[in-house]
Each structure stands twice: as C-alpha cells, then as structure tokens.
Design a protein that fits this description.
The protein is of the alpha+beta class and 176 residues long. The protein has one domain (4-175). It contains 7 helices and 8 strands. The protein has helices spanning 4-10, 48-63, 66-69, 96-101, 110-122, 129-143, 167-175; strands spanning 13-19, 22-27, 34-38, 72-74, 79-80, 84-88, 149-152, 157-160. It has a 5-stranded antiparallel sheet with strand order 1-2-3-6-5, with no helix packed on it. A 3-stranded mixed sheet has the order 4-8-7. α2 packs across α6 and α5 runs antiparallel to α6 (129-143). The longest helix has 16 residues, at 48-63. It is globular.
Length: 176
Amino acid sequence: MRDFSELTQEMNVIRFLGTDRGTLCLEAGLRPTKLVRHFDGKLPTSLIPSYLQLLEACQAWVERRPEVSRLARFEQPLEVGADFVMRPFHIYITSIQTYDEAEDPPEAPAELATLRALLRAELARSTDSKQKLVEQVLSRSILEPCGKTFFRGVEDRFVVVEPRFTAADVTAWSAR
C-alpha cells in the first residue's frame, strides 16, 4: 500500500482545500479526474478504516432501500493508501445547496423532492448508535444544503461526492 509521498511521485497533484479531515489535493492538468484526501489534519491515519466504514455504511443504507438507491448513490474510493483516499473528481455547477440557498435558485430536479420525501420517511427509525450516525450523515448530505451532492443527469440520480461527516463523526464511528 503506497503512501501520499509515493503517490505524489507518480501523480502530479496540487493542494485544493484544507479541512479538519485532511488536505484535499487535485490531480493537476486541464481535465482532472481524481481528488485525493491526504490525512494530514485532525483525523489521524489510524482512523482511515473508520472513515471508509462510515462511507460504506452510508452507501449500504441507501442500497437497502431500492427506491432511494434509484435516486442517490455515494461515491466510493478509487484507491486507499496508507495516509490518503483517492476518489473521482466531479465537475458540476449546481449542487443541492444551490437549490436551497441561492439568491435566484435554478429549478431543482423533481427527483430531489422525491428523494427527500423518501429519506424523511425512512430516517430516525434506528435505535443502533452506528445507524443513527449514518442517518445523521445522510440527513446532512441530502436533506440539508450540501455543496458536495449534485444531480447527475446521465444517471438520473444524485451523487454524494463525499458525505458531510466530520472528524468527530469518524472518531465516534470508530468508538462504537
């Protein structure tokens, strides 16, 4: 398993954004296709497995509900390294945050209201602490304004590029 320094020797990346979960680096070039989260922030590399488990748990929650799965998916990693996670880089102009908060918002796809209604009907049913955490992340990623969730017309569904979970969420997941 390679680490971030080995990755940067093989792939030209540029710093994109710092977060509490680590630095986001973008594949350099005219048409980047990959984004790398380098775990160099508050979230230690020892929590990468928990980070991935929480991401997988969100996708699994969606997949267990076929009606929701037809309308949403969580992007999965392309590669996991010793201190990084690589995922596809998406270029989009309009996120669900735009529909919710823009001064003059574009018309939201009809699928957004349907997806949100389905989620509201399904959320808050779990008594398991891990599933409650998953439901909180789903809520923040789809029900609330989120800049990392967008409608992909070619799929006719929403793509959650990265769930809205915090370093505290990942830490809590690992402790449960």
